[in-house]
Amino acid sequence: MGRMAEDPGRRRVLLAAPRGYCAGVDRAVIAVERALEQYGPPIYVRHEIVHNKYVVRTLERKGAVFVDETAEVPEGEIVIFSAHGVSPEVHREAERGRLATIDATCPLVTKVHKEAVRFAEADYDILLIGHEGHEEVIGTSGEAPDHITLVDGPDDVANVEVRDPEKVVWLSQTTLSVDETMETVEGLRRRFPLLVSPPSDDICYATQNRQTAIKQVAADADLVLVVGSKNSSNSVRMVEVALGAGAGAAHLVDNAEEIREEWLAGVSTVGLSSGASVPEVLVDGVLAWLAERGFGDVEVVQPMREHIQFSLPKELRRDLRAEAAAKVRG
Ligand code: 0CJ
Ligand code: F3S
To answer: How confident is the model at residue 305 (pLDDT cuts 50, 70, 90)?
Structure first.
């Protein structure tokens, strides 16, 4: 039923699922927490472990120190690389600085790095679809800087130059809009008909699922709220996807305090979701804020379920195992 046909007095929330933490974020945040427990503070983290203000502040309070570059980490200390991944040069810098590293790069980002290395070895021109300056794109590009050209959306297709139009592959950032990326690929394919596609989807399962769910919700919502930080690519994409799917309006908020009362004017259905780097407690806060304003009726819209989990970074598992073995030996 479209929103025009709804009872005008009825106020409800359509809560999208899946939402919030993906397997890669869960793993990265737990990695920092475990490292703090196991080795004690300070634990240095290069770049925000995930793009969420609340997560970063909470970990800072527990003793994590966030730095922009490994060069800022004192010799001999522990540094964790964020979920977005780093270039091989960053690994070399850490070695030169005699740092102990824990790599919390999401395994699905590592998969894209490996694809980049493989196609570069086969001397392909790699067209990496992604957002200029985003941490993940910087890391992936660093795997094969001489072979990778960034394509920042459909409007950038005309600017692309390759050495051999018969040997071109596209790869992508993991957190893009699925629809916009397909538009970019179609544009690239018009220019390079022999364009090769990645062996499997680079846009990850979590990004795809959150976009599918928010699309369903947005079609029936006068207002969509997406909880997430402004620098979170996947969260920003969810707002765009919601607007594209017919939401009356859509806003990105870090928490309930950022919602403006006037956004509710004339609204009977609010769609709600959160980005892959967002703890559920922030969604709970928004639900409580809405309930106080008469939106206590919450309906979950869940087109699919997720069961993916990743094991902790190997450096932590190794030490955790050693600790467990020591305990067993008494
Ligand atoms: O790049 C990633 C591996 C996604 C991490 C989770 O989301 P977030 O918000 O930290 O990062 P994006 O800006 O990439 O969405
Ligand atoms: Fe990984 Fe996708 Fe999350 S790439 S960190 S599972 S948003």
So the answer is: very high
